[in-house]
Each structure stands twice: as structure tokens, then as C-alpha cells.
Design brief:
six-stranded mixed sheet, 2 domains, elongated, alpha+beta
């Protein structure tokens, strides 16, 4: 919903719950979730509302969730602004896009099935080439009678191997179209179990706030239909859970009403000609003054959205 509508509905929702003074704090992507817990916990006898959000840039011209806009359509973006998950996954996403466009599958006229892989996507003993995507050769290529995976052809900077039977069966089950005598990019069939990333710390800083939340899920993220949206969702899920765990652990019965709401900032402002700013509520934790904390206070997305939409989008004067 438009951010202005969301903000008004949230204030009216808090009023309906008996909140007295409504002072909303909005913490963005890179905020330490413990800050949210501190704000909620350090408000004796006062009400507190915290929004924990993660920004996703949306390009309405592409109709998809994306990373940072390209230079030709940038208008207001400043590299010193808020970090977001798309900046963290960008180098890995570029590597994946290259791999799925440059790994080829072939069915020869003689009926042999081959996979052709660029040399820079293969692990070479003793070679150090920095952070890069590496194909799991044992999962895509068939071993010979000696148990070795040997190339059947080399052409320029690419090497061809006999395609693994297990991968061919998987491709057939997913209705991959073979064209005898012609090669096709592996494209979306390059699933996350077929590759890994090496020397990750050469691509991103270990102190990056997204390192602990996104690193374990890189394969899932880059292969997702909307990778930047998926990264934002995973980061938000992790940070909300951590903030709530910290708050409940430090809970004091003297607190006032507290509400912590998590959601996605869908931002179009970085694109020429667009000023829209939307917010997608995801989950909330509500606690009334004097109540004990617990899971019964959590509101999932459907319930949260319905309760917000029941509110007027105009705040009383």
C-alpha cells in the first residue's frame, strides 16, 4: 500500500489498541535489530512503535523487483545512502547470470549428451582467481570407467564433458528441449545444487550487515525468480526474529504498550519520473501494558494486513 496510507492506518490501528502517545520509529535495512529491542524495552510506562524495514528498489518499467537502477534511469540515487540487500548480492548475481548464459547443453547428431563449461567456472588446483562461481563438476559431468571426470573436447576457453545421467534425467523431467546438433544455454536449469561460490570474502566485507543473514542462502537467492526481493525477505525475517528474541529476553513488566512491525519498503523514487513509495507489511509483534510476552502476540501477514485495512487512511486532526 502507499506509504502515506500505511502510516495513517498504522497510527489509527495503534489508537484502536489503546496506545496513548504514538511516536513511530522507523529503522531501515542496516539498523542493528537490537536497536529495535532497545527502543521497545527502554520505554517504561510509555508506548512504543517500531517499524523494522528492508528496502527493495522496484522498476515499474521492468515490472520486477531489482537492484540499484542503471545509470541511464538514475535520478536521485546516492551511493552514500541506505544500503540494501541488492548491493550485497550484486556480485554473486552477476556471476550466476554469466554462468547460466555461458554454460551450454548439447545433444550431438550421434546422440551424445554434453555440457560445455567456461574455464573460469571450473576449479583448477593451485589456481587463485578471487571470488567466483564454481560449477560442481561431479554433479554435472559423468565419470568414465576409471571413475575420473575427463573432458571430451576443449575449444578456446571452454571445456566439454559428458553430461551426468542424473542431470540429464532431471532436465528431461523438467521438459528441457533438446535440439540435436545444436547447443543451448543451461539458463534457469542451473539450479543451486550445481554450483557454489569461492573466496566470498574477496567480493564483500565480512562486516557488511547482510553477511550473516544472506551468505548462507546465496544459492537460493541468485536462482530465485526475483532474487533481490527474496534477499530482502530473508534479511527481514532474520532481523525481525532476532529483535523479538532480544526484546522478550530483556522484557520488564513495567513496559507500556509496544508494537514492532516488519515489512518491505518498495521504493520507486530512484527512477526517473517516479516518486511512489510503497510499504508491504509482513509481520508484527504486539504487547499490551502488563501482559506477559509470548508467541500469542505475533501477527502474521494476512491478519496484520486485514487489521490495517480496517483502519481509516486519514488520521484525525
Amino acid at each position: 500500500m502507499p506509504y502515506e496510507d500505511f502510516s495513517s492506518r498504522l497510527k489509527n490501528f495503534c489508537v484502536s489498541l489503546g496506545f496513548r502517545e504514538i511516536n513511530i520509529r522507523h529503522l531501515a535495512s542496516c539498523s542493528d535489530p537490537e536497536n529495535a529491542a532497545d527502543i521497545l524495552a527502554n520505554n517504561p510506562k510509555a508506548d512504543a512503535v517500531v517499524i523494522l524495514s528492508c528496502r527493495v528498489s522496484y522498476n515499474p518499467n521492468w515490472g520486477g523487483y531489482c537492484g540499484l537502477p542503471q545509470l541511464l534511469v538514475r535520478e536521485k540515487y546516492d551511493d552514500r545512502g541506505e544500503q540494501c540487500p541488492s548491493s550485497f548480492i550484486a556480485p554473486f548475481l552477476r556471476q550466476y547470470l554469466f554462468a547460466k548464459e555461458h554454460i551450454y547443453l548439447t545433444k550431438t547428431e550421434e546422440g551424445r549428451y554434453l555440457i560445455t563449461i567456461p574455464e573460469n567456472l571450473l576449479k583448477i588446483e593451485g589456481a587463485t582467481r578471487g571470488s567466483r562461481l564454481l560449477v560442481a563438476l561431479d554433479k554435472v559431468a559423468e565419470a568414465n570407467e576409471d571413475g575420473r571426470i575427463a573432458p571430451v573436447a576443449t575449444n578456446g576457453g571452454s571445456t566439454s564433458f559428458t553430461l551426468a545421467n542424473s542431470l540429464r534425467q532431471s532436465l528431461d523431467a523438467r521438459n528441457f528441449t533438446w535440439m540435436p546438433g545444436r547447443r543451448s544455454p543451461i539458463d534457469r536449469y542451473l539450479s543451486r545444487e550445481l554450483f557454489s561460490f569461492s573466496d566470498i570474502d574477496q567480493a564483500v566485507d565480512r562486516n557488511n550487515p547482510f553477511w550473516p543473514t544472506l551468505l548462507p542462502h546465496l544459492g537460493q537467492i541468485v536462482t530465485h525468480r526475483t532474487p533481490n526481493l527474496r534477499a530482502a525477505e530473508l534479511h527481514l525475517r532474520h532481523e525481525f526474529a532476532r529483535a523479538m528474541a532480544t526484546f522478550i529476553a530483556d522484557h520488564r513488566p513495567s513496559l507500556g504498550n509496544v508494537l514492532c512491525l516488519a515489512g518491505l519498503d518498495i521504493d520507486m523514487a530512484a527512477f526517473t519520473g517516479h516518486e511512489e513509495h510503497y510499504f508491504v507489511p509482513w509481520k508484527a509483534y504486539l504487547e499490551r501494558a502488563g501482559e506477559e510476552p509470548g508467541v500469542e502476540h505475533a501477527m502474521d501477514q494476512d491478519d496484520l494486513f486485514v487489521r490495517l485495512m480496517q483502519q481509516d487512511k486519514q488520521c484525525p486532526a
